[in-house]
Amino acid sequence: MTYRSPLEMPAEEFPFDVLPEHLALLRRARTTWDGSEGVGGGAPGLDRWAPFGSLDVYSDIAAIVDGRTDGTHDPAEENRYDRLFVELTLTLEIVLQTGRFEPGRYVRPPIGAWQPAPDSR
């Protein structure tokens, strides 16, 4: 089966590599309450309009992961930036379930939480 993104793939079918870039993005992420007011009416999440501080998400990602200081980005990098951004969902889940804010390979058994891959401890 072909998957368009790691979010479509059952977790037990693949390991996931948390990259330093994922962690750098999470460190700069802006959070917000997504949904209705109060408990049970939403959940915390990333600011959907300015997840890293400005409305120019690509330029923010370029500054965070590539060290660009000119406020722009290389359009040739947009696919890479899109993938890193989408993968933040898995990265955040891994960080929360393992209590580790460390790059490396992680796996999730069919039943249970993410854990460091046996060869990456």
TrEMBL record:
Domain of life the protein comes from: Bacteria
Protein name: Uncharacterized protein
Lineage, top ranks: Bacteria, Bacillati, Actinomycetota, Actinomycetes, Streptosporangiales
